[in-house]
Amino acid sequence: MTRQDVRKSKRLSQVLRHQPDLIGISLDEGGWTSVPALLEAFARFGEPLSFAELEGIVAASDKQRFAFNADRSLIRANQGHSVTVDLGLAPAVPPDRLYHGTARQFLASIERDGLLKMSRHHVHLHTTIDVALAVGARRGKPVVLTVDAAAMHRQGHAFYVSENDVWLTDTVPPDYITVLADPGAAGGA
Ligand code: HQG
């Protein structure tokens, strides 16, 4: 992606997850918005975006942040919303172990209170250590936490999986969390 595409992709995340009213669009309850209306809104707000560019951004997004419906008349973010949306995800059985990337400065609080969803709808968990490491590095010195998803699921915690393979749950109590000693050495398991 060019630098300009990255900027447009970030803008897209912002309006499809957090602030649709910033460019005067609205999301339906599933988080979908009309593609023509979205393109018009971008143009109106001085950031023209063509359909081809939008398709390129959706296809190139490293984490598949966005999805079109079948005829590409609608688009939504796959996860990460702070506005109220119901993604319609069905509960799913998680892998035995999932990973959460955070930063060292949050560790004491997480060990005390568990993982909380903060401003998002869910706690986000990943299937690989590598992805968790990258997520944690956004906020400081990264720390990877292993979550005993099998035990959580046995004990009745619901899990959902987004289209881009991010596992979502309400909260992870401290008992299910262990700090991964040396994530860099794990070989990207
Ligand atoms: C931390 C990005 C203190 C949590 C990423 C995280 C991901 C606590 C921060 C996706 C805490 C919230 C989500 C507690 C949790 N005390 N800190 N009790 N519980 N935290 O951004 O998981 O690029 O809402 O560890 O790649 O970092 O947007 O969540 O550091 O997939 O597509 O509070 O967002 O994807 O931060 O990131 P976030 P996240 P996109």
Number of strands: 9
Distance between the termini: 27 Å
Uncertain regions spanning at least 5 consecutive residues: none
User: Tell me about the biggest sheet?
Assistant: 3 strands, antiparallel
Give the tally of structural domains: 2
Bound molecules: ligand HQG
Structural class: alpha+beta
| Reported CATH architecture of the largest domain | Alpha-Beta Barrel
Q: Main sheet: which strands, in order across? A: 1-3-2
Helix content: 25-40%
CATH class of the largest domain: Alpha Beta
Gross morphology is: globular
Share of β-strand residues: 15-25%
Secondary structure topology:
Elements: H1 3-18, E1 33-34, H2 35-44, H3 51-60, E2 66-68, E3 74-77, E4 97-103, H4 107-113, E5 123-125, H5 129-137, E6 142-148, H6 149-154, E7 159-161, E8 167-169, E9 177-179
Antiparallel strand pairs: 1-3, 2-3, 4-6, 5-8, 6-9, 7-8
List keywords for this structure.
189 residues, Arc Repressor Mutant, subunit A, ADP-ribosylation fold, 2 domains, three-stranded antiparallel β-sheet, binds ligand HQG
